[in-house]
Amino acid sequence: MYTLNVRPIGSVKASEAGMQIVLKEEYIPALQELHGFSHLNIIWWFSEVSDEEGRHNLEVKQPYKWSPAIMGVFATRSPFRPNPIALTSVQVNVIDTENGVIHIPYIDAHDGTPILDIKPYTPSLDRVESPKTPEWCRHWPKSLEQSADFDWQDEFQF
């Protein structure tokens, strides 16, 4: 049996000035040589739904308007899952390596959300040329860039 010890490395800061990933001071050296990557994979904790009850949800009722009536949680991006961990690819605007701040246009996390890890987005490992998706979500955008103009509010049931 493994003992897991997950420590946040920073948090999301959302304000009228924009969105940022702000690292704790001891993790700032880990930003070395991250410049040059246009996108990052951010691993974060669904802190607003991090309760024991939510971790037992294995099925959800039609979270998307066009999806099946019942779905396994692993077929969704629901925050209610055995481990409320999220992964979001973000575009980098500026990396302030001196202060440990990554300025980004958007992340689907709230102000104060704990950040668990950061990995560079690399097409050789993260990009899939021809992914397949179920019929109910094939009309979704084909890229992060196209998602910015997509009406996501019309997709969700909540």
From TrEMBL:
Gene3D superfamilies: YaeB-like
Signal peptide region: none
Pfam families hit by this protein: TrmO_N (PF01980)
Family per record: Belongs to the tRNA methyltransferase O family.
NCBIfam families tied to this protein: tRNA_TsaA
Protein name per Swiss-Prot or TrEMBL: tRNA-Thr(GGU) m(6)t(6)A37 methyltransferase TsaA
Keyword field: Methyltransferase, S-adenosyl-L-methionine, Transferase
InterPro entries to which the protein is assigned, alphabetical: TrmO-like_N (IPR023370), UPF0066_cons_site (IPR023368), YaeB-like (IPR040372), YaeB-like_sf (IPR036413), YaeB_N_sf (IPR036414)
Source taxon at top rank: Bacteria
UniProt GO MF annotations: methyltransferase activity
Biological-process GO terms, alphabetical: methylation
